[in-house]
């Protein structure tokens, strides 16, 4: 069992791992160490929506569990996988409603192989609808796990989306979405030192809307804050100052 590490303090280091480490297999291994969890798993597929069709999976699970999982055809039973590829929101494994004896047996088998029992899965979707699932699991004290999950879910979501984009670009050739006109405008004014309230007045929109545009631009540019998004947009020629 690994010590849980506050994710918010290491998001940028996690991003560096995702962008610079040579293979996705090594990325998940390094993220496991960096995040201090027992296991990290990333799932997607060649079909874009069905995890059992041409599956693309990188994980830190032990080899005996991977062999068992394949032998028992658990991909067609796994309740985490089912929910992850049909949901848009992150979910704790404790929230899963087990619907069949096969699912119960599979989860018991997983615990017997050292998987869980605590886990968080984060569904991710690209602009073209290509779905993926990023999961972390832990076997420690349930109260410690709950605090870790509550404190760090935002950082884990950012990490999940970053690794999803790398896989889609590297393995499936899917490119990053372009910024909208409004996103460019908001970033351009931010680059000139304007705050959200100032931009709202200039563009005649609400402050909340400005913040939403800046957030979506940051998300598309894979940046953790607006300042980084502005810098990256300038570097890529998306805005000028």
Automatic annotation (TrEMBL):
Limits of the HTH luxR-type domain: 172-237
GO MF terms, alphabetically ordered: DNA binding
Domain of life of the native organism: Bacteria
A Gene Ontology biological process term: regulation of DNA-templated transcription
Entry-linked PROSITE patterns: HTH_LUXR_1, HTH_LUXR_2
Annotated keywords: DNA-binding, Transcription, Transcription regulation
InterPro entries recorded: Sig_transdc_resp-reg_C-effctor, TF_LuxR_autoind-bd_dom, TF_LuxR_autoind-bd_dom_sf, Tscrpt_reg_LuxR_C, WH-like_DNA-bd_sf
Protein name from the UniProt record: LuxR family transcriptional regulator
